[in-house]
Design goal:
globular; 4-stranded antiparallel beta sheet; 4-stranded parallel beta sheet; binds zinc ion; about 475 residues
Amino acid sequence: MVIIMKIYNTLSKKKEEFEPHEPGKVSMYVCGPTVYNLIHIGNARPMIIFDTVRRYMEYKGWQVNFVSNFTDVDDKIIKKAQEEGVEPSVISERYIEECKKDMSALNVKPATVHPKATEEIGGMLDMIRTLLEKGHAYVAGDGTVYFKTRSFREYGKLSHKNLDDLQGGNRSLLVSGEDQKEDPLDFVLWKPKKDGEPYWESPWCEGRPGWHIECSVMSKKYLGDEIDIHAGGEDLIFPHHENEIAQSEAANEKTFARYWMHNGFLNIDHKKMSKSTGNFFTVRDIGEKYDLQVLRFFMLSAHYRSPLNFSEELMEAAKNGYERIVTSVSNLNYLLEKAGGDMLRAEEEKCVEEAKGFVTKFEKAMEDDFNTADAVSAIFELVKLANTNVSEESSAALIKALKENILMLSDICGLLVEKEDEMLDDEIERLIEERQEARKAKNFARADEIRNMLSERGILLEDTREGVKWKRA
Ligand code: AMP
Ligand code: ZN
């Protein structure tokens, strides 16, 4: 059965059929965090969601070129650096490393490229130059370069805002220090340095870029002028993404991104979790109490566009749900150690057919704008099927088929459900044999590697006169 993938596009406010522009290849850009602190679990929501989108697309056989930036020049980074009496790069490098550790603990795959704003200044200067040449920007007296918002006719098309409403309704657009703007709607592309701030040379003044220009430039450099998907949290729709569209489309004269995906907020007490208001939990905080796979499961249990309220009860429910899958896999592994029979028995074929039905159900849910809540319930149905149909009498073929399906769907969700200490006896023995062969061939590096790998997984080796013995730590 051919399933047509649908994605809700913020641009059209509709679910649309999705096909990559270039067959088999998806280009995707996700706005990443500003690195001045440990990430909170609100920041983790887009990471988990769009990693799952990527994993599903890879499962479909598409090659996903996935770019996600680190904003490493920003007022908050500079402030923190001044408080600690260090260079801003010390702060940003520290928190990029910490963020990568959190991503790995959440089983979020590294992006194809993780560009940093400070390493892309040349491209930003080029784009600003183009915008000036094309009449979409101007230089104010102090060297600030502004984007001339009204020069981009389609401004407002993503956030569905009308320019005149914006002008009348939002006086705060004209903030202090920006009184050289020709129009309150204009926004900064480049601004002069202040004392003690990092800066770069430019034709207009020594200074640094505005925030929005970095994503337009990095997306162009790593993915080209026209990309398939641009994504981030819904707080970025306006002004960040609206401004990115204006800059990119005015400069490149091409459609910037065909699909715009935005995740809803992660809330606490129904208010957006954010660093600035102080109502947040870091990923580290949650990791002290729960396996972070539970957090990932929790995020996937709701639709990505809906708000999701964080609570102890929901985390406990997520823990139970996640553990239900882990226990089932563990049980299948246990039975598999004893089972024989590489062929399905006649009466088992029906069960494998049923399992395939749940895989289709999972795919349908994912292809309906990534309805992960329904996709997860398809995994539960598979688990239930396995729990009720597999026993000590089952063939190894049946147990393997069910286990493989559960692992495959969990892996698309980025959920690690096979615990490492669940390594099977014969898998351990095969590795021990390989280690013996490596030693015979004097490949001690490989032999040590195998020993370390087993030790990391809690398997201890002992070289005795009678051969190698092993035990679980
Ligand atoms: P920031 O570091 O604030 O620029 O945010 C990095 C990413 O996290 C962006 O895609 C934001 O939209 C997203 N984000 C920040 N706070 C939340 C939240 N409470 N819920 C969901 N996404 C969020
Ligand atoms: Zn961005």
